[in-house]
From TrEMBL:
<feature type="domain" description="Reverse transcriptase zinc-binding">
    <location>
        <begin position="3"/>
        <end position="60"/>
    </location>
</feature>
<dbReference type="Pfam" id="PF13966">
    <property type="entry name" value="zf-RVT"/>
</dbReference>
<dbReference type="Pfam" id="PF13456">
    <property type="entry name" value="RVT_3"/>
</dbReference>
<keyword id="KW-0732">Signal</keyword>
<dbReference type="InterPro" id="IPR044730">
    <property type="entry name" value="RNase_H-like_dom_plant"/>
</dbReference>
<keyword id="KW-0695">RNA-directed DNA polymerase</keyword>
<dbReference type="InterPro" id="IPR036397">
    <property type="entry name" value="RNaseH_sf"/>
</dbReference>
<keyword id="KW-0548">Nucleotidyltransferase</keyword>
<feature type="domain" description="RNase H type-1">
    <location>
        <begin position="169"/>
        <end position="287"/>
    </location>
</feature>
<keyword id="KW-0808">Transferase</keyword>
<protein>
    <submittedName>
        <fullName>Putative ribonuclease H-like domain, reverse transcriptase zinc-binding domain-containing protein</fullName>
    </submittedName>
</protein>
<dbReference type="GO" id="GO:0003964">
    <property type="term" value="F:RNA-directed DNA polymerase activity"/>
</dbReference>
<feature type="signal peptide">
    <location>
        <begin position="1"/>
        <end position="21"/>
    </location>
</feature>
<dbReference type="InterPro" id="IPR002156">
    <property type="entry name" value="RNaseH_domain"/>
</dbReference>
<dbReference type="GO" id="GO:0004523">
    <property type="term" value="F:RNA-DNA hybrid ribonuclease activity"/>
</dbReference>
<dbReference type="InterPro" id="IPR026960">
    <property type="entry name" value="RVT-Znf"/>
</dbReference>
<dbReference type="GO" id="GO:0003676">
    <property type="term" value="F:nucleic acid binding"/>
</dbReference>
Length: 329
């Protein structure tokens, strides 16, 4: 599904059930009132917030254009979410329904928060038009109607940082069978020499959590070693977007990301950028090599055997190849 990065994060939060509705906030003892801040008559569960609240339900009645999606308004939360999320049928001149569905949920959440936190906020007179205009703008920006995609092969290699800089590569991994997550990080100097490395088995969770903890622990390592100018590379577009563009106050990883941002500000210069996985393989290898051990961390002053060959490949600037999409008008 092609979505803006912030909506990808939002959709992930919905799927994981991690949006902080008042029902969730009450479970965590963050509030004593679990009522819906829009209708004030029902408890604010995810299903109520995104579908069953009377004001929200009117939006769905107007925007729904498929009989099977209308019928899904009567089923339970998980089935409703799946029915909409997997629906790729075209509507309104070529939009994918699941894209329109995600945008609609995003605006419902956005307006809900504005209603709470912005004094004098008024819901749009025509909310469906606001949503449709936003989706149309996104499709136009992506060139969905007038371009096709092709693939080309590009050569990639790990690049040494500039003079006076160090490079920090971070990554996270998750074992699908048991949900264990790990983080890896490696710090190298301007000549590509190993300064310090680390692998950690964090516990159980999701990939984004592992990657975020990898970022935090990596920045801590660089700060503790007295580094001044740091280039940070990560192969998670979502995490890089959160670091560079900000994070919603209600995001479950906000506290960890805020610590990352605080550490980032402690360096004289610190640049965080996205790279393809092919040039982040040392950190990737480190993130996986401790998943079978007890929860904890292992530090490396020299490359461990699991990544020695990869480190040598990076030093020798060995090329790796990846197919990437290219737009053709």
């Amino acid at each position: 599904m092609c979505l803006p990065p912030k909506l990808k994060i939002f959709l992930w939060l919905i799927i994981q059930g991690k949006l902080l509705t008042n029902t969730e906030r009450m479970k965590r003892r963050l509030t004593s009132d679990n009522s819906c801040p829009i209708c004030h008559t029902h408890s604010e569960s995810l299903l109520h917030l995104l579908r069953d609240c009377p004001r929200v339900n009117k939006i769905w009645q107007e925007i729904n254009c498929f009989d099977n999606i209308r019928r899904a308004m009567q089923i339970d939360w998980a089935k409703w979410l799946a029915a909409n999320g997997y629906c790729t049928m075209k509507c309104y001149g070529g939009m994918n329904w699941n894209v329109l569905f995600t945008f609609t949920c995003w605006y419902i959440w956005k307006w809900r928060n504005k209603n709470i936190f912005e004094e004098g906020f008024q819901f749009p007179i025509n909310p469906v038009k606001v949503i449709m205009d936003s989706v149309t703008e996104w499709y136009l920006a992506q060139g969905k109607k007038n371009t096709r995609t092709d693939q080309t092969t590009v050569a990639l290699k790990w690049l040494k940082p500039g003079n006076g800089w160090v490079k920090l590569n971070v990554d996270g991994a998750r074992a699908n069978l048991n949900g264990k997550i790990g983080a890896g990080r490696v710090l190298r100097d301007q000549d590509g020499n190993w300064i310090h490395g680390f692998t950690a088995h964090i516990g159980q969770g999701q990939v984004l959590e592992a990657e975020t903890w990898g970022m935090l622990l990596g920045l801590q390592m660089a700060a503790n070693l007295g580094m001044d100018k740091v280039v940070v590379e990560c192969d998670s577009e979502v995490l890089v977007s959160l670091m560079n563009n900000g994070v919603d106050d209600l995001h479950p990883l906000k506290t960890v990301i805020n610590f990352c941002l605080h550490l980032q500000s402690s360096f004289s210069e610190c640049v965080i950028s996205h790279v393809f996985q092919e040039v982040n393989t040392v950190a990737d290898g480190l993130s996986r090599c401790n998943l079978s051990a007890e929860i904890g961390a292992i530090y490396f002053e020299q490359p461990p055997p699991q990544v020695t060959n990869i480190v040598l490949d990076d030093l020798c600037e060995v090329l790796k190849y990846r197919k990437v999409a290219t737009a053709i008008g």
